[in-house]
Specification:
The structure holds 2 protein chains of 2 kinds. By secondary structure, chain A is α+β, with helices and mostly antiparallel strands. Chain A is 27% helix and 23% strand. In chain A, α6 packs antiparallel against α8. Chain B is an all-alpha fold. The radius of gyration of chain B is 24 Å and the shape is flat. The relative contact order of chain B is 0.15. The chains are: A alpha+beta, B mainly alpha. The interface between A and B is large, with 65 and 55 residues.
């Protein structure tokens, strides 16, 4: 795939010429997404293609503004904590699903129970691990029960789509979705397209686009061609080098942050001076410019998006200083010592290039870097291995819930998933922060954790990547921080 | 003939079973679908629970026994990625690939016979030189590059054809030409060289000496002898297209066929879907091979099938 993408890039470069898109019908648009959803059941898969469509058909109790702020969605207001393990949601009245079923407490209870039921084999269950059940109080009041105090629950409910209680049992549910959203399902022509149309009875502000057709185009050069030929109005994942060729484009700070997880127990990297050198020897600005055409920003000493809860505002950048890095390596007696850097290729944008560039910076600082680009399966085996940690391993982290808990747990909590330290104190702090319901206290706990991880260089945070979208000339849209493709926010001008 | 067919089908079954078993082993060695499918920040406990839900926590021997008994009933299990029977996915996508191959290889076969024959009539003439040049061109151009160039020129610049996707006849033109080009090149070269050989044979001179019209000598006698290697190569082209060449073309043109699905199944570590795809393609290849043997017999009755 990587070779393909690269050659495609060259092909599209050859393709660059000024073209005026043909005009299509007024308020009907076509969006290209990278892959066809495998199901339109909104509760089963963890898949961007499915979300791109169902985010318009279904809604959630909590929502986010384009800028990432958590606000009430189908809930009338933010939930209240009844006790440590119970959150109570009041629902907006008079909302109906597209098939006429009422949206009420029963629908919420059913939605919660279904997605956490092991029989559904939902990949999304990983987002809802703390939820044990839901109960109806009255028609418009629901309580969600968690196994322990869960401050992230409101964010989790921004990820859980609300489905109609009765229709969810229908055999057609996975093929013909029915939600409460601003768009309703029209047709799914497998392999070719999915069509949605405006829901005239939508409870919120009326959308402007009447009909949206989704096409599935995996190859980025082909997607760009479709945009230039006037067949498409919106394409996702426009490559940075092609941004200028699109009739219009927009870049927004995305959810992905790339990083290296450094082992604190291995022979060479157990010395904090070596790890600090690995951090300050990397010129992140140069990487953002040269690899991502400027559509990325150096990560601020931590691994989440500044919009996420738990982001530490006071951390400075790791200042690029190769001389100091060389001195630290020398001081630690690590000069010429070999470290193994494990990565993969083709999964994330420019992953191989980024890994190799960082390896080269480390070499420049005096380490001998053995770069191992593994196939994805083998890479995952090493990423999740609890016993032997590579000296450094690459990861690109996506922060869907915009809350640091999952990222902290994944990359910093010893033995939980892919952390490379054995810091029991930090592990306890992360567990404690996960159940701290006082917002300020919780933020202070994360500030302490990220500060320690920063000072001791447990991680080498690299870049916050931007999502780049290509538009046709007539389309107006401000992309969102949470990467959702909400058609109700789009407009066309003729 | 009947005995021959039975034997070939028996052999074919063995091949299919062998290939599928190899795929079972290989897929379980290369990747763990649980790790690939769940969000990367899922915890180990969540992964273990998911493995249990989809039955991948069972000992490999148990999985193998279930696999063999399911396969005997042509049950490949549910695709992990598509969440529906794997064979349904394959049977839904296979016709799209067959249509594309039909258009592409049909084009290659129809054009290669006359082009190769005309080139052979005057070796070194301008038709011949042009054919050889275009043939080499077609062989040396990578397909994805050529496909993208076609999209850029015919769809973006001229706006005559759609950039990608599947639909009416217009949607077939670019992907079919892209798929056809290397096959056409190989087939033309073969027809040309074996026609040149045949035309220098004694029997051609004899036929001409006896006053047979040159056209008839070329079209009937020499062509017939050229057909045997031609069918062999065309069959090989068909098999290669099925076994992989379409992956590139389907990717570039977002063609919803089996090749694209196979690539996605590999990316998603969808063991069950991969098994179903490999099984289906293996069966098709066996069928094509038997078909080719029969075709040889029809072209040249001297060939004995044993």
């Amino acid at each position: 795939m990587n070779v393909l993408t690269r050659l495609t890039s060259s092909a599209a470069v050859a393709a660059i010429m000024a073209l005026s898109p043909l005009s299509a019908q007024a308020a009907d648009i076509t969006i290209a997404i990278g892959s066809e959803p495998s199901t339109l059941d909104p509760q089963v898969r963890d898949d961007g293609g499915e979300r791109a469509i169902n985010d318009n058909v279904y809604e959630t109790l909590m929502a986010r503004t384009p800028d990432g702020e958590l606000v009430a969605g189908l809930a009338a207001a933010a939930p209240t904590a009844v006790d440590a393990k119970t959150w109570e949601f009041k629902l907006r009245p008079d909302i109906k699903f597209h098939n006429g079923e009422a949206f009420n407490a029963d629908a919420v209870v059913n939605s919660v129970k279904r997605v956490i039921d092991p029989a559904l084999k939902s990949e999304q269950a990983a987002y809802f691990g703390t939820i044990t059940g839901a109960e109806k109080v009255d028609d418009l009041t629901v309580r969600i029960i968690t196994s322990g105090p869960d401050p992230i629950l409101p964010s989790r409910m921004y990820w859980m789509k609300m489905i109609p209680a009765t229709y969810a049992g229908d055999a057609k549910f996975a093929e013909a979705p029915v939600g409460t959203g601003p768009y309703k399902f029209t047709s799914w022509n497998r392999g070719q397209d999915i069509v949605l149309e405006k829901n005239a009875d939508y409870w919120g502000d009326a959308a402007s686009i009447d009909k949206v057709t989704y096409r599935f185009v995996g190859e980025s050069g082909t997607r760009l061609s479709g945009l230039m030929a006037g067949e498409l109005d919106v394409i996702t994942n426009l490559l940075p080098e092609f941004a200028q060729q699109a009739p219009k484009f927009a870049a927004v700070s995305g959810l992905e942050t790339s990083l290296m997880i450094v082992s604190t127990d291995n022979e060479v990297t157990k010395d904090p001076r070596v790890r600090e050198a690995m951090n300050i020897s990397v010129d992140r600005k140069a990487l953002a410019e040269s690899l991502f055409g400027g559509y990325a920003t150096p990560a601020k000493g931590q691994v989440v998006n500044p919009k996420a809860f738990g982001y530490n505002k006071s951390l400075p950048d790791y200042v690029f200083d190769v001389d100091k890095a060389r001195a630290l390596i020398k001081e630690a007696g690590a000069e010429g010592k070999t470290i193994k850097l494990v990565g993969e290729a083709g999964r994330w944008l420019k992953d191989r290039e980024l890994i190799e560039a960082v390896g080269a910076y480390w070499k420049d600082a005096g380490l001998n870097v053995d770069i191992k680009i593994e196939d994805f399966g083998e890479y995952l085996n090493q990423l999740f291995d609890k016993n032997t940690r590579p000296d450094a391993i690459f990861l690109s982290n996506s922060n869907e819930l915009l809350d640091v808990d999952r990222e902290m747990t994944a990359v910093l909590q010893s033995k939980a998933s892919s952390a490379s330290n054995s810091d029991q104190e930090m592990s306890d702090q992360i567990s404690a922060a996960r159940t701290e319901t006082d917002i300020e206290k919780r933020q202070a706990m994360y500030d302490a954790i990220t500060k320690k991880s920063y000072d001791l260089s447990y991680l080498v945070p690299l870049l916050n990547q931007q999502d780049i979208y290509g538009f046709s000339k007539r389309l107006e849209w401000q992309p969102r921080v949470d990467s959702k493709l909400l058609v109700k926010e789009m407009k066309v001008t003729e | 003939m009947g005995g021959f067919l039975l034997r070939r089908i028996g052999q074919g079954l063995l091949v299919v079973i062998g290939v599928t078993v190899i795929v079972f082993i290989a897929t379980r060695m290369v990747g763990d679908p649980v790790k690939v499918m769940l969000p990367l920040s899922a915890t180990d406990a969540q992964r273990a629970a998911f493995a249990q839900q989809i039955g991948l926590d069972r000992p490999i021997a148990t999985q193998f026994v279930d696999f063999v008994s399911d396969m005997a009933r042509l049950d490949f299990g549910d695709s992990l990625w598509q969440r529906r029977p794997a064979l349904d996915v394959v049977l839904e996508r296979l016709p799209n690939t067959l249509k594309l191959i039909g258009a592409g290889l049909g084009l290659a076969i129809l054009l290669s016979l006359p082009l190769g024959a005309i080139a052979a009539l005057r070796p070194g003439g301008w038709v011949d030189r042009t054919t050889v040049f275009v043939g080499l061109f077609g062989l040396s151009l990578p397909q994805f590059w050529f496909g993208l160039l076609m999209i850029v020129f015919f769809a973006v610049t001229l706006g005559w054809l759609p950039t990608s996707g599947m639909g009416g006849a217009r949607y077939y033109i670019l992907p079919a030409i892209t798929l056809a080009l290397p096959s056409l090149a190989r087939l033309v070269m073969l027809v040309r060289s074996s026609m040149i050989d045949e035309l220098n044979q004694q029997y051609v001179r004899t036929a001409r000496a006896k006053g047979l019209h040159f056209k008839r000598v070329v079209m009937v006698h020499a062509m017939r002898n050229t057909l045997v290697p031609f069918v062999t190569l065309a069959g090989w082209e068909l098999i290669s297209a099925l076994a992989g060449y379409t992956v590139v073309v389907e990717t570039v043109f977002a063609w919803p066929g089996l090749g694209l699905t196979a690539m996605q199944a590999i990316q998603k570590s969808d063991l069950f879907l991969m098994q179903a795809i490999v099984f289906t393609v293996a069966v098709l290849i066996v069928v094509i091979n038997v078909g080719l043997d029969i075709l040889y017999k029809l072209i040249d009755p001297r060939i004995r099938l044993a």
